[in-house]
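Kindly review this protein for my students:
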Amino acid sequence: MSTIGKVLTMYRERSGLTQKELADELSYWSEDFASVNPVTISRWETGTTSPGIAKKRELLKFLAHKGCLKSDACLDFFRERYRLLYDSLGRIFTSRYQYIVGNYPDFRPEEYRVTPILEHEEWKRHLEHLIDIERITNVEGYYTPTVETVHRWCAHPGSLGILCERKGQNLGHFLMIKVDDRIARQIAHHEREEFDIDPGDLRGPDEPGSYYIHALYGSNPRVAAIVNVEAYLHMLRHFETIDNIAIFSSRPDGAEITRDYGIRLVAKGEHPRYGFLWHGMLSPVEEILFADEIVKLLF
């Protein structure tokens, strides 16, 4: 059974559908599946044939929107697949990024530990480290958030604030903040400063909203990949309440993240005060979770 065949079978059996009923659902979902019939479904499920990348991508979107990820078995299956991204993402970070990845010696993924920042007994030190990294990788004077501000963002139930460590040493972090979708769009188009997020702008894990990715750093490509995979897993768990993923980058390598992994450049310009070239990125969560490169690698 193929990978895509396995997840299709899981969804169909959980939903109590025959292969014909699944074919009918798919034809209603998208014109891309107008010619799909029970024989096609059977061949996909057994791995006799396999749909192309475009159809696989639409199948995964269909399954996610139909609630497949609510099933523990299905969610566990997707988690297993996304953890296979460590090596491929590590290679991307090695070749394309200048500032978010350092050169700390590499180890196997199981030797690192990922925890919520605020659950660590030395959380204040880790927040200070995050702020230091952001300050030195941006134009002088641009990064203004304080420990109190970043703590407030991390503490909100809708946020994902994690650190990766080995033997007690902080080696990387990832912080994305769930906000009203209107706020995320304003940040991506630089109609609002990225640090100008009020408590009323934040959204909880069960509320609809979009994630603004505030900080990403890894001391080596493996660590950067590990914290990114954790972000993917978080998006999978909360898929039904996430609209978009937004990034506002003030760094020269920022736009590189748009290549191959579904994050679309929507605006760019020169900051009127600090003079750097900024890039605003915004994409629906399914475009990121099921980008072509992800589908090629995992499904």
Q: What stands out?
A: The domain at 3-66 is CATH 1.10.260 (434 Repressor (Amino-terminal Domain)). The two ends are 12 Å apart (CA to CA). The mean pLDDT is 93. The chain has two domains: 3-66, 80-298.
